[in-house]
Design a protein that fits this description.
Dodecin subunit-like; 55% strand; 3-stranded antiparallel sheet; 69 residues
Length: 69
């Protein structure tokens, strides 16, 4: 097994469908520009309430990816 060095970034995904969808949307979008993503951790979760109902979910993630070279 070889050793690797990782970098972490923090991003926030938003969805009206739920927390799971917010996470998936954030990772999908990040994968367009960040290569070799290896893991994520949820660091914050919040939502917006409109007229007494949940309107949006926001989930902040840290994503780890391998540095090349």
């Amino acid at each position: 097994m070889s050793d690797h060095v990782y970098k972490k970034i923090e991003i926030t995904g938003t969805s009206s469908e739920g927390q799971d969808d917010a996470i998936r949307q954030a990772i999908k979008r990040a994968s367009a520009t960040v290569k070799d993503m290896s893991w994520f951790e949820v660091v914050e979760s919040r939502g917006r309430i409109t007229d007494g109902k949940i309107d949006k979910f926001q989930v902040t993630l840290k994503i780890g990816f391998k540095l090349k070279g």
